[in-house]
Design brief:
There is one protein chain. It contains 24 helices and 10 strands. By secondary structure, it is of the alpha/beta class. The protein has 4 domains: about 130 residues, Response regulator (Rossmann fold, 3-Layer(aba) Sandwich), CATH 3.40.50.2300; about 150 residues, Reverse transcriptase/Diguanylate cyclase domain (Alpha-Beta Plaits, 2-Layer Sandwich), CATH 3.30.70.270; about 110 residues, no CATH class; about 110 residues, Homeodomain-like (Arc Repressor Mutant, subunit A, Orthogonal Bundle).
Length: about 550
Amino acid sequence: MLKLLIVEDEKWEREGLLDFLDWKSFGITTIETACDGIEGYNKAKRMQPEIIITDIKMPGMDGIVMSKKIKEFLPAVKIIILSGYDDFRLAKEAISFNANAYVLKPLDEEELMPIIQKVVEECKKKIEKAEKESLINTMLTESQLKSKTKFINDLLEGKIECNEIQKLINDYDIRTTPEMNYLVLVIKFLDDSNIDKINSYPANINSVLNDILDVLESILGSSMIFSLSDSFEKLIKCCISIPKADTALCPSILINILPIINQKIELNTYLGIGKAVESLDAINLSNTQALLAVEYGIFWSVTDIIEYASLEKKQRSFIDTTGDFLVKNSYFSKQMIHAVRSSNEDRLFELLTDMFQHLNDSYGAGKDLIVNYLQNILNETTILLYTLNMDFDLSSFDKNDLGFELNSHISLKTIEEFIFNFFKNTLKSLSENKNNKDIQIIKKVTTLIEEKYMLDINLKIIAGEVFLSPNYLGSIFKKCTGKTFNDYLCEFRMEKAKELLKFPKNKVNLVATKVGIPNTSYFCTIFKDTFGMAPGEYQETILRNM
């Protein structure tokens, strides 16, 4: 609200003015007094009043001199001059510095009230005008900031035509020089282990982002030419300028950032760096690379800074071992299905542990490759469960839901937990349905096959062992496994043959005998029909890759 300063050397008149009018009814809430021009000048400097009522004749400094000096730093202040002299010269002086009114003493309430009302209205109009101008300026500033933010985001995502980039860079006063290279730094702290910490952080997520930006600015200084934060994605992108001669040193410079951020923010933060580019025209490439590096770090739970250049090397190195990766994964897949079919819990979780050790050692493999491989195992398992019991309730194992669930995990660590829980639930469900007679019979038959596959066995012999007719056993075997007895036995023998061929001392004819097919020629034909290559050729390939 409005402030009023009363300057009067006569005490009784000064105090009388305080009660002369109901000042609050005019919107004047703060009133101070001064006994002369010198005190009035000093109080005006301190309180910055909108209205001054002053006498003219005062010792030390009169009202005219005081008013002129106050107008120098408060040009908009409204001044009402009081005087006991009907002197034209004094009125002329008051007009010379734009006094708002000249009132003769003794004061008359009916004369003073309209003057105060007019001055107050002028003050309010000026305040309203200033507030509107401030609002317009704020809106313009916010609009410019949004426009610049959109430009930076579009620039990083490669959505701006090359011929427009330089003009927009100049428009937004982003300074570039030919001596510099540019790269993107991406910081992200949304991962499975951080969600609770972020939600419990004492401020909102925007405050967290601002804290991180403060850390970056204190470390990078002028080398950070612009930044972009996203509270929804919980990440920050920074564009850094590096002298071309120092580009190779960039990772060693940035390596100090992560521990400082972790110490200040108390979050497990991931940081990715894209390759340096020579101009902002190509900064979208560095941005894409930095994002891929961050995703890689999160998936493999790597807490160090991830350089995209190093990630490329890991990916190229993995390509050379892809064959071994696929062979081992095929082995795990087949053996796990066998373990599930026979409800062999110890063997199943031994295989799961070995499989994830293998996956964790496969740096450079993409998330999509690993997720697709694991999804195939889950799909095969659900199909097996359906075939084991057509009435079995597998609504919680819907294949589409499983794929979505698997892809929703952003780290291999949480995927591993999900897979283990899936198979725990699978075995639990099988255990709850163990009273199914046909399933128990087939479990016994598959156990017999595992124990006697190296012998001369057939459906008739095994049917005799479980006290069933061959036709009936063949029927329920096909119903429960989806395969004929002979096909199942043949596949089992071929898988055993693959395992034996991994050892150089096991010749093809010896392996054939060990898996219950003493006719080597017939064994070779079946093996090639099953795996697309002769057993000797397969053994050479395996031994060469070991």
